[in-house]
Amino acid sequence: MSRLAAFGPFWWDFVIGDDWLVAVLVAVAIGATAVLAAAGVAAWWLMPLAVLGILWLSLRRAIRSA
Fold this sequence. Notes:
Blueprint: H1 3-15, H2 20-38, H3 46-65
Helix pairs in contact: 2-3
């Protein structure tokens, strides 16, 4: 496979990985942080809370499926 043909699948696997839901939730959290920051709100607190919530959800799903 050429390097150019391998570029897309590499990034898909790197960003999405095994859990597409986590990738979507992180993208939503980044977008929400950007919207709050553009509105003039101090949005530094949103990403740490989002990461904790997403981690909790991911671990809960993994434990439930095991």
